[in-house]
Amino acid sequence: xxxxxxxxxxxxxxxxxxxxxxxxxxxxxxxxxxxxxxxxxxxxxxxxxxxxxxxxxxxxxxxxxxxxxxxxxxxxxxxxxxxxxxxxxxxxxxxxxxxxxxxxxxxxxxxxxxxxxxxxxxxxxxxxxxxxxxxxxxxxxxxxxxxxxxxxxxxxxxxxxxxxxxxxxxxxxxxxxxxxxxxxxxxxxxxxxxxxxxxxxxxxxxxxxxxxxxxxxxxxxxxxxxxxxxxxxxxxxxxxxxxxxxxxxxxxxxxxxxxxxxxxxxxxxxxxxxxxxxxxxxxxxxxxxxxxxxxxxxxxxxxxxxxxxxxxxxxxxxxxxxxxxxxxxxxxxxxxxxxxxxxxxxxxxxxxxxxxxxxxxxxxxxxxxxxxxxxxxxxxxxxxxxxxxxxxxxxxxxxxxxxxxxxxxxxxxxxxxxxxxxxxxxxxxxxxxxxxxxxxxxxxxxxxxxxxxxxxxxxxxxxxxxxxxxxxxxxxxxxxxxxxxxxxxxxxxxxxxxxxxxxxxxxxxxxxxxx
Length: 515
Description:
alpha+beta; GMC family oxidoreductase N-terminal domain-containing protein; about 525 residues; GMC_OxRdtase_N; GMC_OxRdtase; GMC_OxRtase_C; 11 helices
């Protein structure tokens, strides 16, 4: 196999996903700036299996999924598999496109963690720049049982009904989500659809290298000069960056790429025989997620067919008035979500619904690490679910199951429900509920934090507030891996906003160099 040099570009963006699509689109608005996007998956253009939002579940575990296993989780569910999308648009081509502007308390928490310039006031303008079509679930997609869930939650818990979660910050509320989609045809308004599809054929300065896998960064001393990639034909190329390499490969593949490039904790790299280029102990640490559990009911009969993506409504509550935002969330699924309970012997009912209590601000922290020097070997994802000191995460799920039962007893939802399938009405004690909730826990696919942003004094911070990698030149990271802490809401919009801010930082840097 011969390695060839190919053209140099001003910027090389690794990952054509949620943030990468934004950055590539914004940088190439200047016709004199050349950008290559390295994307491991194929294009999403013309692919109805990807572009139709309601078909999202069919993508899980399929050919467009990197599908990462989880290490043994003594207090959680060791069978969780983390879907990461292998297609243009990344996880915004794969997920449910629930679209929440992060709450002011989420951004302010970042600023307090050392991400100077990322407070709510500074970040607010980036939301208005987003090109995605963010709209509330369309009236035609508002399933009758989901409407009744909203009414029942409001009646049972006294939380306000929210019509448009992005209109103003909230602590509590129940309602239909905002989604990044086109309701008239149920098509996605993903990062690729919104940012790349309109320009990909008309900007000669934008090069998409699809089905091309980045396996190592090229460095000259402490300066990143390019990326080593393998095409789908097995050809190995060096793609050079004249200005900067921007790594947007996500919370799993960004730290993986850095580690295989010799950037990370010195002892770990040496133990695997990877030459250490730059000792950076925080790479792979601070692995975050939004774990959730599930409670399932059988319904008296089939549920009406209409829906945007089968999980169109949700609930937020604030149990502790001292917290700045919501501390318990639910998705309401118009399907019986029994994949994990079936492992414990529960049976899927013919018709049913689920509520999924979720931990907006989990306190457990995990880590990602390599098990081999071979870049083809998947990294180990050890989320350390439910290992926080005071069992805050576990207790949150128990509270969630109890609240879910209150909602299920309330009209008008109660009339639909025949029986509680799992955990089952006989499971009532805190310990039994906790064991059930943790064993059937699943992920909503929100890994984050593995290259976290922080102050210069923070030894475990991987990137500075301008997204540059500490101690290196010519390289930035922009994706969910830079999150210092987890937003209380679904993080996709936050990642798009990171992309918008990164593009602005890059443009400003170039402008000042030219002056």
